[in-house]
């Protein structure tokens, strides 16, 4: 197992190096991508500005807690854009172009090399800077003395959120083995991501339950922050621990079933 992990890590580092080299080859595109993403990030600051200006409690969260929440959302957005989005988009393109003909024979996990083959470095930059800044400012303004356990739970549930993100947002792209083009389906799923930019308490209880247990997008951003402030109930904590494992196992089975539907470029 260790040798396999080492091999896949080496491959990932090589793919990341190639990705960075390709992006640096077209510097104007790289800069434009940062500018466009910065504009999107600035639009999210509207939520921060409004909550700070009104000073009201939203869903039981103070304006500074919401600021920390939005900062966490931006960091997870950076991870999603940086590590997953490019590889997910490759799946549909690879099916249309017959690229999997070259990948299937390779002695490496097909799911790994297909979905993690592209490291995006331009779009995550504004999100990381904004996210870290908001968390730093909010943390100092709140003055909350979190225990080591709460901080570790925050980090742990961010990791769980990354797995949930991967497992949910890869599904529309796996459908390309049946439908070839999945752009519209993927766009709909991406709209779900924006439900995470505010605490789930602003929605009614049925939307909250759907976002936790049916399509667990609220697990991604809400659970880390709730764990940090010791607001995560035992049921939610157990669910947050087991759902990443369940989702990944299901999506792994779905992937294997989808690969059987693949028809090579030669027919």
Describe this structure in words.
The chain has 267 residues and is an all-alpha fold. It is 76% helix and 0% strand. The chain contains 13 helices and no strands. It has helices at residues 2-25, 27-54, 63-97, 100-103, 110-115, 124-142, 148-169, 171-174, 176-179, 183-193, 205-214, 218-228, 234-259. Helix 2 (27-54) packs antiparallel against helix 3 (63-97), helix 2 (27-54) packs parallel to helix 6 (124-142) and helix 7 runs antiparallel to helix 12. The protein is globular, with a radius of gyration of 20 Å. The mean pLDDT is 90.
How are the secondary structure elements laid out?
Layout lengths: L1 H24 L1 H28 L8 H35 L2 H4 L6 H6 L8 H19 L5 H22 L1 H4 L1 H4 L3 H11 L11 H10 L3 H11 L5 H26 L8
Helix pairs in contact: 2-3, 2-6, 3-6, 3-7, 3-12, 7-12, 7-13
Can you summarize this structure?
The chain is mostly helical.
CA-CA gap between termini: 35 Å
Please give the radius of gyration in angstroms: 20 Å
Mean pLDDT, all residues? 90
Q: Which consecutive residue ranges, at least 5 long each, have pLDDT under 50?
A: none
Count, helices: 13
Shape: globular
Q: Major sheet, described briefly? A: none
Strand content: under 5%
User: Helical percent range?
Assistant: over 70%
Q: In sequence order, what are the helices and strands, one letter per element?
A: HHHHHHHHHHHHH
Number of E-type strands: 0
User: Which structural category fits the helices and strands?
Assistant: mainly alpha
